[in-house]
Write a structure and sequence with these properties.
alpha+beta, elongated, 13 helices, disordered N terminus
Length: 421
């Protein structure tokens, strides 16, 4: 149920005082209405029983006072509706005393449903309007009018129809305003939840990054020391050390970038991107080489179909992370199969294609490929490893470089990923 905005508890003393003063004035008006036949005898000849009239308004005042007390204690929606109907009785009394169905003040009967509309309560708008229509229509059967007077009945019908049109319009407005109010509240709630998730994510990334930074720095320092002090080592051993050193340095670079991004509380790494001209051929070969252990373990043949050197403006540190993630997916989900990587020039940019003969992606999952933390159903069956953020992050990185990432797949036949830069 929608949260009420009609809090009349004395958290705001000035508002509470105004509210109760207004209601006290209205209660006085009820009693005054009841006394009118006695204050102006002979003027309102159609009020045949002045005492009954007075008792009626005293009863209405008592009911209204009871509603106000209950409102102060409980503030239930039904009590606000009852209060509005009590106000409607007051306006009907004004109309009756000033001529009934020929009263020039007929228009004030719009006030109660208008207040319900402003309060975003369409059901109350309809209920109050129906109450007023029935009550106003009954004036045709009260003295001094006669329901046999056809002219008056026609005039009454015109007034009631006009009022119904206004009530229907107010009901529609109340519904639309309430919908917009709920949508605004829902959007605010979603934004607040997303902000909290981003804060938790940033805290997590910052914690993990800082915990990894020290040991990785130690590994890089140790490997560097070994390289400097093993000049007489076998060329194969030295090459292995150099490769391990380069991988550790790249990992440390990624961790440092994550730390900087978390420090800025950024949802993307756009502030961290350091663009320069790079050789995409060498970058792809490095990514393939980094995943050699995985291709051997899964018995996947990885081939780089194009030996052409193509350059592009990019940040090698985060771009290689994105390409490695895409290659990791291709290899991991094509056990015993093959992965083909190609590099071509495309206009003033480049196109990288990664095709595999793996399990493919079910059609029902393809709409969610780039959702954060989402994994295809058949991928979970093949491998429990994975976080579901590889494609999500890869696309973000590619888009930061002004490129695009496109995935086409058929379950059981394989997947093709195309990166344009």
């Amino acid at each position: 149920m929608r949260t009420l905005t009609h809090d009349i508890r004395p958290h705001d003393r000035r508002l509470s005082r105004f509210f109760f003063v207004a209601e006290a004035v209205l209660l006085g008006a009820y009693i005054f209405f009841g006394c009118i036949p006695f204050l102006f005898p002979g003027r309102l000849i159609w009020i045949e029983h002045p005492l009954a009239w007075l008792l009626f308004w005293i009863a209405i005042a008592g009911i209204h006072a009871g509603i106000i007390v209950l409102l102060y204690l409980f503030q239930k929606p039904a009590l606000f509706s009852a209060r509005n109907i009590s106000h409607a009785v007051f306006y009907l009394g004004i109309v009756y005393l000033t001529g009934g169905i020929v009263s020039p003040f007929f228009i004030i009967l719009v006030i109660p449903p208008l207040l319900s509309t402003i309060a975003l309560r369409p059901a109350e708008t309809a209920g109050v309007s129906a109450f007023i229509v029935v009550s106003f229509g009954s004036f045709a059967f009260l003295p001094p009018y006669s329901y046999a007077d056809q002219a008056l009945l026609v005039w009454l019908l015109v007034q009631i129809l006009s009022y119904c049109v206004i009530a229907i319009l107010l009901y529609g407005v109340a519904n639309e305003l309430r919908y917009q109010h709920h949508e605004r509240r829902r959007t605010q709630r979603v934004v607040a939840e997303q902000t909290e998730l981003d804060r938790i994510k940033s805290t997590y990334i910052n914690t993990v990054s800082r915990r990894l930074e020290a040991p990785l720095s130690g590994v890089v320092w140790g490997l560097n020391d070994l390289l400097e002090n093993t000049s007489d080592a076998k060329s194969r051993d030295r090459a292995l050390l150099k490769k391990s050193h380069d991988r550790a340095e790249r990992a440390l670079g990624i961790v440092n970038t994550m730390t900087e991004a978390a420090a800025l509380n950024a949802d993307n790494l756009s502030h961290m991107v350091r663009i320069r001209k790079i050789d995409l051929h060498n970058l792809i070969e490095t990514a393939i080489d980094d995943l050699a252990y995985l291709s051997e373990r899964t018995n996947v043949t990885v081939s780089f179909a194009n030996a052409k050197h193509v350059t592009a403006n990019a940040d090698p540190t985060i771009l290689i992370a994105a390409l490695t993630s895409l290659l990791d997916n291709a290899i991991r989900y094509a056990p015993g199969g093959s992965v083909t990587v190609s590099l071509d020039e495309k206009g003033s940019g480049a196109a990288i294609t990664i095709s595999d003969t793996g399990i493919g992606i079910p059609k029902s999952d393809q709409a969610h490929l780039f959702d954060r933390l989402y994994r295809a159903s058949n991928a979970i069956a093949v491998s429990q490893d994975g976080t579901g953020i590889g494609l999500y992050n890869a696309r973000r990185v590619i888009e930061m470089h002004g490129g695009t990432l496109k995935v086409t797949s058929e379950e059981g036949k394989g997947t093709t990923v195309t990166v344009t830069l």
